Amino acid sequence: MKAHPWQSMIEGLLEAIILVDPIQLRIVAANQAIHQLLQVGSSSLLGKGVIELAVAPEDVFFWEDVAAGLSENIHSETMLKRADGSIVQVERRVTLIRTGVDSSVYVVAINDHSNQRRVENELEKLIAELRATLESTADGILVTDLDGAIRSYNHLFAELWGLPDELLTQRDDGAIYAWMDACMHDASQYEERLGTISRSPLMEATDVLTLRSGKTLERVTLPQYARGRPIGRVYSYRDITQRLADEARLRLAAKVFESSTDAIFITDAEQKIVTTNPSFERLSSYTEQEMLGKTPRDFFSEEGNAVQVENLLKELDNLGFWEGELWNRRKNGHAYLCMISLVKVQDEFGAALNYIGFFKDRTETHTAKQRIEELAFLDVLTGLPNRLLLEERIRQAITISSRNNSTFSLLFLDLDHFKQINDSLGHPFGDRVLQQVTERLKKCIRQVDTAARLGGDEFVLLLHEANAEGAEICARRVLEELSAPFSLDGMHFTVTASIGIALYPEDGISMADLIKNADSAMYHVKERGRSDFRFYQRQMNIGLLSRMKLDHAMRQALEHQRFRLHYQPQVELATGKMLGVEALLRWTDKDLGEVSPVQFIPVAEESGVIVPIGNWVIQTAIKQAALWNRDGKSMRVAINVSALQFQQANFVDSIAAALHEHALQPHCIELELTESILIKDVEDALKKLESLAALGVKLAIDDFGTGYSSLSYLKRFPIYKLKIDRSFVGDLPVDESDVAIVTAIIHLAHALKLRVIAEGVETDRQREFLQQRQCDEMQGYLFSQAMSADELEQRYLR
Ligand SMILES: Nc1nc2c(ncn2[C@@H]2O[C@@H]3COP(=O)(O)O[C@H]4[C@@H](O)[C@H](n5cnc6c(=O)[nH]c(N)nc65)O[C@@H]4COP(=O)(O)O[C@H]3[C@H]2O)c(=O)[nH]1
């Protein structure tokens, strides 16, 4: 084929060129560049239909339009297919060139764009990567040009500054900057600083921005360079609000750690100590250096507490927490009690990260607690165990004794007339007396025994494994020890005590019973004149409750005049003539029935109600005596007087007043006093007795022989008569010792020029015996029981 005339011309062009015949649409010339572009052999394109090269539909449509005379030119990007089938991006321009009047040719000029495309693709990819990077940074990024015009920013920037959507879409830089200004706490300072930055294109700066919202942002700005020249600026913003708060918290925690008065140590996950605070060293004397690498096990383990430490570490691992007390040792070996809290710090999966231990010295608190406990169990004044501790010891004694089948004794001790010491010399003096008494009591017991103070002047001695004999020996020792004179502030005085004894198990198997029974035995000692001891006997057993009931009933009886007096004749033995009567109290209670004076008089004495009852007896008996002694008749009435009644300051006056009121001759009245009354307060008793004697009232000693029977008072006191107790009369004349006693009393009385009367005479043999021994008078069922005044009058006075 003949070469196209333009062949050589197109050969010299850089562009790939093909010439196409407009009628046949075949390639009539093609330069080397197109052959290279399509990677085909030279001249191989000549004669080919141009449409064969078309890949894009656009080209196919164009050449079809050309064929139909509809189109002549086209210029756009398109694709061509190479020989190997690969596609190449090109820019192609098709121009129809008129070569003559009726000849023309299509010039197809093709530029290879595949390189440019690749570069563009690369750039696009780069930009996409950059954008992704921008978005994925943890900071908010703003990029501006040198004039401050915003070139780009990421989402985080918008988020940090809280930019509203409309600002994001508007792309109004002024509005965005205004928004940022408005967010600032100190907008003017912010703007000033921003101005400085924008005026210095090379400046690098880091600032902290405080926003009105409370947020704190850190702003780092760096110049952006292109080809070595600054072209703009990148601002990166980071929200450091949390970080600052964390730092502040950390600083605080560090301060707490450093200044805490609690000792603190922190371990790693393997429980090796990594740090300790100053208090740790203060408390344990171990330095941090010495503790590094040690474990809590090393630190807390002590001889004997290994199991406890192992258990607490186990609990710490299981529960994440342990709190409790443990004895520990300082470096110098001194023991101290620690209050410890251990905490396991875990990650979100429960694995241990650290262990923290807090502890403080509880020794002082412990000692104080011990002291408080001691105080709770000790009597402050004497240092003796108090009631609580005594009760505890008695409980122990009961347990041991019941197990060993052994015995123990309880001595209930009450000082006699201690109230007088307190009242006259003051409580502080009384307290010192109690302290001295305590010292003496301690001397009387063994180390295993307990001396306790219940309060006031009441003490209890608990004697382990002591039977009746042991208790008696101790009781005597106490009385003996106390009998030595006391000396305080230059004063000398004696203190006596009344002691009641209860034995385990005979007198009670419970603590309450034992104390109650020892107490009741003690009361009996008091009744019988004090300064003695006595064992509990069952008949004493008018329990406290019944005592209270009885007391109440007596007060009621007194108020409602339910007491009566019966009179028992007293007869002259020689003549059988009734010389007088003894007034005896009678009481029939609506619930209790007839209550014997043997039962209720001791209770009345204990509670003090004997005083009004005794007054009533005196009034009634004197009134009755006055009736019987009318018209020159002579009838003596003997009245029982109890100790408490006699001790009343107005006792003598009340007798004198009653005599006066009923116009009775004093010699018609005989007062029966027990021996205990006389020895109680000798001087006072003497004074009263002398006053009564001076009045003309007769005085008799009741129950003579059962008490002290001291000859000295018989001599000193103005006594008129002795009354032989009926316990000596009952077995007369069989019992030799009673015979001897009664004989001796009668002789004694007569030797002292006193009259003598025997009570409880029930048989003729007794009467005969007494008559033989020249007893003056007798009283008893043999002659008559006690009876009402009416009955007596009917029987004997008509
Ligand atoms: N087994 C027997 N007993 C006889 C016989 N003859 C009299 N008695 C009883 O012996 C007691 C004598 O009185 P006491 O020794 O003064 O003993 C009295 C006295 O200590 C006290 N008491 C009675 N009345 C009063 C009173 O008005 N005031 C005071 N303070 N005590 C009184 O109560 C005690 C008992 O009084 P009572 O039960 O009335 O008992 C009376 C009397 O009933 C006898 O032949 N055989």
**N-to-C span:** 199 Å
Calculate Rg over CA atoms.
64 Å
* Main sheet specs: 8 strands, mixed, barrel
What structural category do the secondary elements indicate? alpha+beta
With helices defined by DSSP (H or I, 4 residues minimum), what is the helix count? 31
Pfam families: EAL, GGDEF, PAS_8, PAS_9
Organism: Undibacterium umbellatum
Domain GGDEF: 406-538
Domain PAS: 126-171, 249-319
Map the helices and strands.
Blueprint: H1 7-11, E1 16-20, E2 27-30, H2 32-38, H3 57-67, E3 74-81, E4 87-98, E5 104-112, H4 114-136, E6 140-145, E7 150-153, H5 155-161, H6 165-170, H7 173-183, H8 187-199, E8 205-210, E9 216-226, E10 229-239, H9 241-259, E11 263-267, E12 273-276, H10 278-284, H11 288-291, H12 296-300, H13 306-319, E13 321-329, E14 335-346, E15 352-361, H14 363-377, H15 387-404, E16 408-415, H16 418-425, H17 427-444, E17 450-455, E18 458-464, H18 468-483, E19 486-488, E20 491-493, E21 497-504, H19 511-527, E22 533-535, H20 544-559, E23 563-572, E24 578-589, E25 593-595, H21 597-607, H22 610-628, E26 636-640, H23 643-647, H24 651-661, E27 669-673, H25 675-680, H26 682-695, E28 698-704, H27 711-716, E29 721-724, H28 726-729, H29 736-751, E30 755-759, H30 764-772, E31 777-779, H31 789-796
Parallel strand pairs: 21-22, 24-26, 26-27, 27-28, 28-29, 29-30, 30-31
Antiparallel strand pairs: 1-2, 1-5, 3-4, 4-5, 6-7, 6-10, 8-9, 9-10, 11-12, 11-15, 13-14, 14-15, 16-18, 16-21, 17-18, 19-20, 23-24, 23-31, 24-25
Helix pairs in contact: 16-17, 17-18, 20-21, 22-24, 24-26
